[in-house]
Amino acid sequence: INPPSTWASIMKQHAEYPYDLAILGGDQIYVDCVPGVFEVEAIKKIMEPESNGTMLCLTTEQERIVDQQLAANILKQYTTHHSKPGFAEFLAAIRAKCLTDDHEYY
């Protein structure tokens, strides 16, 4: 999605007529569609069913660990996306506001 040539074209326009602000609407990334993002090792270890078929409840510390691992996985996806050629240069040169949508995680 959004090949470098798209961003090169925008940067060329920006060089001629500088933008004050770019507002990016729609989904920034589809992090919930990336395989493995929500496969958190802490969940696998903690949430294995008991022999009677019931699930264990998470302790506060276990929730903290799961939150940290999920946040790290999601941050990696945003970092990878925002580092793509062309898009990274765009973000470095033009102030941008990314509007949240149904696939964003902040």
Q: Treating each run of at least 4 consecutive H or I residues as one helix, how many helices?
A: 4
- Helix content percent band: 40-55%
N- to C-terminal distance: 21 Å
How large is the share of residues in beta strands?
Answer: 5-15%
Count the strands? 2
Q: Strand pairing plus helix content: what structural class? A: mainly alpha
Instruction: Indicate the radius of gyration in whole angstroms.
Output: 19 Å
Low-confidence stretches: none
> What value does the average pLDDT take?
82
**How would you spell out the order of helices and strands?**
HEHHHE
Shape, per Cα inertia axes: elongated
What do you see in this structure?
- With 106 residues, the protein is mostly helical.
- The protein contains 4 helices and 2 strands, in the order αβαααβ.
- It has helices at residues 4-16, 41-46, 60-82, 87-93, and strands spanning 22-24, 96-98.
- Strands 1-2 form a two-stranded parallel ribbon.
- The chain starts with a helix and ends in an 8-residue tail after the last strand.
- The mean pLDDT is 82.
